[in-house]
């Protein structure tokens, strides 16, 4: 609500503090486990359910014009125009064919509710599929998978800034969960819904179904490492080629743009992004090739992540390449956490090392916040 606008600068701290309490509490619990107890124990969903309810209400009803919530103000302006004039912008129309489901819901809601209730509904669409998907992927450890998700650095941005992309990625988690159970038709339906919210999710959907049929780990690593080599060698030409054949105008703009907020920016290879992206991949290499531990669910999760991330690596020099990276990063926390919950990855002190990885995962989010990233 707008009367809370003076407190908008504290919203991220509130999110961080609540997730920090949950993370430290779970860290202390897991750190006391012996050997592989973290694999054997089921985790309580109640804290994550309460957090989801809190996030939906508190952040769904956030002040829309405070300037602290990214594109929230843009969404609110569009909603106001729809509610008062029945148009998406002052020119009278936008191309709603790309994100048809999002715009259809927005137009319908504008006729029956105010912008704050609509944003709360969108926050529901963001949190509920994510929680449901984690539960479907691993019922026993789904709460811990969800904790990894809410502790990821992109979680808050997806929920308050990139609303369409966040919802699309959450629904894509449901598609992944369905395909893990070989429910191909249901997975395809969720993919279509995801693409209906944000057309760029087509890349994630393609990676998902490709990994369903090409599930050998060596191909995943060949694709990812090969993408790095190609990007280093001819990255500029790759950007130009991909932008010319892009299926999404926004994606093409992200590849081609040299400007941000009026500043001329430099195209460069993002080693920092690549290092971050490599963490679950390094864990996968150790788990699969050194420890010989995997199952079909893990291979599908890993393949979806690595194939989508490979596409981003090809376009890594783009100014806004992080927007493309999100199409693989949305499943990053699950790919990182799943093997720790299901396989005896570490021969010694597996539970304690799992607890440390959980703490380090959220610690990275904390560092980025402190650095103002």
What does it look like?
This protein is an all-alpha fold. The protein has two domains: 1-198, no CATH class; 200-342, no CATH class. Helix content is 72%, strand content 1%. The chain contains 18 helices and two strands. A two-stranded antiparallel ribbon has the order 1-2. Helix 5 packs across helix 10. The chain is globular and about 60 Å long. The chain starts with 10 loop residues before the first helix and ends with a helix. Residues 256-266 have low confidence and may be disordered.
Please give the order of strands in the largest beta sheet: 1-2
Number of continuous helical runs:
18
Number of domains: 2
Radius of gyration, whole Å: 20 Å
Average of per-residue pLDDT values: 88
Percent of residues in beta strands? Answer: under 5%
Cα end-to-end separation: 26 Å
Q: Unreliable segments (pLDDT under 50, ≥5 consecutive)?
A: 256-266
H/E topology pattern: HHHHHHHHHHHHHEEHHHHH
- Helix fraction? over 70%
- The count of DSSP E runs of length 2 or more, i.e. the number of strands, is 2
Largest sheet: 2 strands, antiparallel
Structural classification = mainly alpha
Overall shape: globular
Protein name: EpsG family protein
Keywords: Membrane, Transmembrane, Transmembrane helix
InterPro entries: EpsG-like
Pfam families: EpsG
């Amino acid at each position: 609500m707008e009367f809370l606008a003076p407190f908008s600068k504290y919203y991220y701290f509130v999110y961080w503090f609540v997730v920090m309490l949950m993370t430290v509490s779970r860290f202390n619990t897991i750190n006391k486990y012996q050997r592989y107890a973290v694999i054997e124990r089921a985790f309580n969903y109640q804290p994550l359910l309460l957090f989801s309810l809190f996030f939906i209400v508190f952040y769904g009803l956030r002040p829309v014009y405070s300037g602290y919530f990214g594109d929230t103000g843009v969404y609110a302006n569009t909603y106001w125009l729809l509610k008062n004039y029945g148009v998406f912008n002052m020119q009278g129309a936008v191309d709603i064919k790309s994100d048809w489901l999002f715009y259809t819901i927005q137009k319908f809601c504008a006729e029956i509710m105010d912008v704050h209730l609509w944003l709360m509904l969108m926050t529901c669409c963001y949190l509920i599929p994510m929680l449901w998907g984690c539960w479907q992927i691993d019922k026993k450890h789904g709460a811990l998978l969800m904790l990894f998700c809410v502790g990821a650095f992109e979680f808050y941005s997806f929920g308050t800034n990139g609303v369409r992309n966040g919802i699309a990625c959450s629904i894509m988690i449901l598609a992944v969960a369905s395909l893990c159970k070989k429910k191909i038709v249901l997975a395809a339906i969720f993919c279509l819904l995801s693409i209906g919210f944000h057309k760029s999710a087509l890349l994630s959907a393609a990676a998902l179904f490709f990994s369903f049929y090409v599930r050998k780990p060596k191909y995943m690593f060949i694709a990812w490492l090969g993408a790095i080599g190609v990007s280093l060698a001819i990255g500029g030409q790759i950007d130009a080629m991909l932008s010319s054949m892009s299926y999404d105008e926004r994606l093409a703009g992200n590849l081609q743009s040299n400007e941000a907020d009026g500043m001329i920016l430099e195209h460069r290879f993002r080693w920092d992004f690549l290092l971050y992206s490599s963490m679950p991949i390094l864990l996968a290499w150790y788990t699969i090739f050194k420890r010989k531990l995997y199952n079909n669910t893990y291979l599908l999760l890993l393949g979806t992540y690595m194939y989508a991330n490979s596409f981003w690596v090809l376009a890594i020099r783009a100014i806004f390449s992080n927007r493309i990276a999100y199409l693989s990063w949305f499943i990053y926390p699950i790919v990182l956490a799943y093997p720790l919950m299901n396989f005896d990855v570490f021969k010694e002190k597996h539970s304690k090392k799992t607890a440390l990885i959980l703490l380090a995962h959220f610690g990275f989010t904390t560092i980025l916040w402190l650095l103002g990233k």
